[in-house]
Write a structure and sequence with these properties.
With about 425 residues, the protein is an alpha+beta fold. The protein folds into 3 domains: about 160 residues, Orthogonal Bundle (Triger factor/SurA peptide-binding fold), CATH 1.10.4030.10; about 100 residues, Chitinase A, domain 3 (Roll), CATH 3.10.50.40; about 90 residues, Roll (Chitinase A, domain 3), CATH 3.10.50.40. The chain is built from 16 helices and 11 strands. The strands form 3 sheets. A 4-stranded antiparallel sheet has the order 4-3-6-5. It has a 4-stranded antiparallel sheet with strand order 8-7-10-9, sandwiched between helices. Strand 1 and strand 2 form a beta hairpin. Helix 6 packs across helix 8 and helix 9 crosses helix 16. The protein starts with a helix and ends with a strand. The relative contact order is 0.12.
Length: about 425
């Protein structure tokens, strides 16, 4: 019982990351209580509970979903939530079939493993725990099939329709806040291990690859690794430790830059990881940074300088436009910096606070007597080094794709003929 409760707690915490809820089976006597069904309905579990166009959802399926929702400790009205999700899945499966998408057994099994991993289990362990609550393996399999089919449908249908501009990435970076946690920059060597003889040879090789520096590790990856990263000397991108497989995360979490992990074994291969860098990100609000440019015009607030400032204001819309103007001036007459707000010179800081990006101030005079044409280039949050443009672009694409898919699903549901004879 304690083991089941612990797993339920882990799965419950993962609830926000799960787009659909798993199906399940529960015993008839329990179902009658959980769903408020009459004894006669409980005895006839396969009568229609919901009909979505021509798709029938039985009382049996509805009770299964409610059972699993209860196991996951889902909030709200369990009965209504179970019905809503099963209606959505009926529509999702129909649209996937129309598009010729039907996940094979191997893909479904991988999805079951992925779901179970959220609770620190493998699929077989989770199936056993579900069975203790009367939840059938086939119900679990049906849920995963629906989720995988919809994922593949969304990927094929909506991802090609989404484009993210550079300006959108810039805007998102400016307001992004780092999430607390540990991010790592790794290189990897993947050694084969599909059969006992190969695995034995790979273990021996892994033992010889300890103590390498970054350059040596990269050359070893190029020579020995069978992973996709080998052509990039084994180098991986910045990753949150929580995004890594549990065994890998455990192996690299305690490393310092320049160290190599212990061997991480799976059924297919053996892996070594070299930690190139790490970053612990605090969850507090990040410091505000400003990107600004200051063009110094000798002669102070002279009529000529004021006229020049007016011309700059009329034709320059961004800080990069100041470079051609400063080309004939000494280099020190144009300053371009990106700094935390607290490190910006006090006189500039107060003036920049009045400006929006692209705006110019000519109110200041430098200590040398030059008029300062001060422009705010951008204002945003200080970001960890591990936050890359590619990461932000992927986040924006995923969000927009999810929105398109959700609108489509809502439209299909609004147009569907839905009856609920069993509710």
């Amino acid at each position: 019982m304690m083991r089941t409760t612990a797993v339920a707690t882990k799965l419950g915490k993962a609830w926000g990351r799960i787009t659909q809820v798993v199906s399940g089976l529960i015993q008839v006597s329990v179902l009658a209580t959980a769903l408020g069904l009459s004894p006669a309905m409980a005895q006839n579990q396969f009568r229609p509970a919901i009909v979505v166009d021509s798709e029938v959802i039985t009382v049996y399926q509805l009770s299964q979903r409610a059972a699993f929702l209860t196991l996951l400790r889902a909030p709200g009205d369990i009965r209504q939530l179970a019905a809503d999700q099963l209606i959505n899945e009926a529509i999702q499966l129909r649209e996937a079939r129309k598009a010729g998408i039907s996940p094979d057994a191997e893909t479904v099994r991988a999805g079951m493993e992925e779901f179970a991993k959220r609770g620190g289990l493998d699929a077989d362990q989770l199936i056993q725990l579900l069975a203790q609550g009367g939840i059938a393996e086939q119900s679990f399999r049906d849920f995963v099939t629906a989720g995988v089919a919809w994922r593949d449908y969304v990927k094929a249908t909506f991802v090609p329709k989404v484009t993210i501009s550079s300006a959108e990435v810039d805007a998102a970076i400016a307001i992004a806040k780092p999430e607390p946690g540990l991010r790592v920059l790794l290189s990897e060597i993947v050694l084969p291990g599909a059969d006992p003889a190969t695995r034995k040879a790979s273990r021996a090789r892994a033992d010889r690859l300890t103590g390498l520096d970054e350059t040596e590790f990269g050359q070893a990856a190029l020579r020995f690794s069978v992973g996709a990263s080998r052509n990039n000397l084994g180098k991986m991108k910045w990753l949150d430790v929580t995004a890594l497989p549990p065994a890998t995360a455990a192996a690299v979490r305690g490393l310092q830059p320049g160290q190599i992990s212990r061997v991480v074994e799976s059924k297919e291969d053996l892996r070594l990881y070299f930690l190139r860098d790490r970053e612990e990100v605090a969850g507090a609000t990040p410091r505000t940074t400003v990107d600004y440019a200051a063009l110094l015009l000798a002669g102070g607030q002279s009529p000529a300088n004021l006229d020049e400032a007016a011309r700059i204001r009329a034709r320059v819309t961004g800080c990069d436009g100041l470079y051609p103007i400063a080309r004939a001036l000494p280099p020190e007459h144009l300053v371009r910096e990106t700094l935390p707000l607290a490190q910006v010179p006090a006189a500039y800081s107060a003036e920049l606070d009045r400006l929006d990006p692209g705006e110019i101030s000519t109110r200041l005079t430098s200590s040398s007597g030059a008029m300062v044409v001060l422009m705010l280039c951008s204002r945003g949050n200080e970001q960890p080094r591990s936050l890359t443009r590619e990461m932000v672009q992927d986040q924006l694409r995923n969000t927009r794709t999810g929105t398109l898919a959700q609108f489509f699903l809502e439209e299909q549901r609004a147009n569907a003929h839905i009856e609920m004879p069993g509710l």
